[in-house]
Write a structure and sequence with these properties.
Pfam families: Ribosomal_S21 (PF01165). Belongs to the bacterial ribosomal protein bS21 family. The protein is mainly alpha-helical and 91 residues long. It contains three helices and no strands. The protein starts with 9 loop residues before the first helix and ends in a 26-residue tail after the last helix. The relative contact order is 0.05.
Length: 91
C-alpha cells in the first residue's frame, strides 16, 4: 500500500493511509489474529460474513431496480463563510 506525501504534510498522508487500511480490512484482520480462533468459529464467522455481503448486494440491486426506496441522503452541515479581512493601519 502506498501513499504520497505532498508538501511535507505527513499528518494528511497518515489519515489517507489509515482510511485505505480501514477500507481494505487490515485493522479488522489484525484484531482477529490477536487470539486463536477455532476452525468451527472461523467457519461460522465466514458464513455469516458471506450472508451479510449477499444481503447487502441484493439490497443494492433491489434499490437499483426500483423495488426498494433509496435511503435518504445525509445532509452535509453548512459551512459558515469566512470572516471578512479587515485592513489594520500599520503602527
Amino acid at each position: 500500500m502506498q501513499v504520497m506525501v505532498r508538501d511535507n504534510n505527513v499528518d494528511q498522508a497518515l489519515r489517507v493511509l489509515k482510511k485505505k487500511m480501514q477500507r481494505e480490512g487490515v485493522f479488522r484482520e489484525m484484531k482477529q489474529r490477536r487470539a486463536y480462533e477455532k476452525p468451527s468459529e472461523r467457519k461460522a464467522r465466514e458464513k455469516s460474513e458471506a450472508i451479510r455481503r449477499a444481503r447487502k448486494l441484493a439490497r443494492k440491486q433491489a434499490i437499483r431496480e426500483g423495488l426498494l426506496p433509496a435511503p435518504p441522503k445525509k445532509k452535509l452541515p453548512e459551512r459558515k463563510p469566512p470572516l471578512p479581512q479587515t485592513s489594520r493601519p500599520a503602527d
